[in-house]
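Hypothesis: this fold can be encoded by more than one sequence.
Test: take the structure tokens below, design a sequence, compare later.
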């Protein structure tokens, strides 16, 4: 699946909206959002969705190396409309995201024994961290019991908790 990002999205002239101890975590661009030349590339994309009674319903977000955060949430339940947001995050946020990814040890996992996407839906996680590039695809996970019932409960548990952390992070 291609990311669902119309290039026309732009939140121009918006002020910073999140401040922690006097440091702005979201901004509208500028040199503080550009990675230093000596930093390694870092990119994260997550997608979860299904096609059902109400059409293609999904949640997707991505963090690009320049600090651009894109978010889309589509549900047609009760004729709801797609929510699209775009912002830039500072390098401090990108460093914390990278630390979360690295601390989870997801880069050491393999999705070969994870449940394949099915009619219930699919999840995708793509991470580029320096020279490592992972791309996982699995079915939707309803609960920890689904994780335990898989052929690779340890690896899928790492994925399950990382996804929860990423959703909270966004």
């Amino acid at each position: 699946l291609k990311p669902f990002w119309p290039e026309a999205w732009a939140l121009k002239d918006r002020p910073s909206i999140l401040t922690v101890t006097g440091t702005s975590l979201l901004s509208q661009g500028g040199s503080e959002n550009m990675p230093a030349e000596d930093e390694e590339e870092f990119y994260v994309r997550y997608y979860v969705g299904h096609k059902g009674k109400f059409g293609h319903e999904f949640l997707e977000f991505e963090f690009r190396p320049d600090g651009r955060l894109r978010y889309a949430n589509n549900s047609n339940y009760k004729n709801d409309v797609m929510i699209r947001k775009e912002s830039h995050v500072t390098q401090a946020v990108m460093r914390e995201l990278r630390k979360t990814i690295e601390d989870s040890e997801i880069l050491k996992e393999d999705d070969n024994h994870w449940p394949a996407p099915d009619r219930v839906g699919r999840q995708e996680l793509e991470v580029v961290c320096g020279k490592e590039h992972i791309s996982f695809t699995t079915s939707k996970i309803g609960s920890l019991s689904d994780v335990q019932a898989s052929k690779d409960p340890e690896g899928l548990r790492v994925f399950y908790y990382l996804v929860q952390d990423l959703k909270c992070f966004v």
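DSSP finds three helices and nine strands in the chain. The longest strand covers residues 42-52.
Hypothesis status: open.
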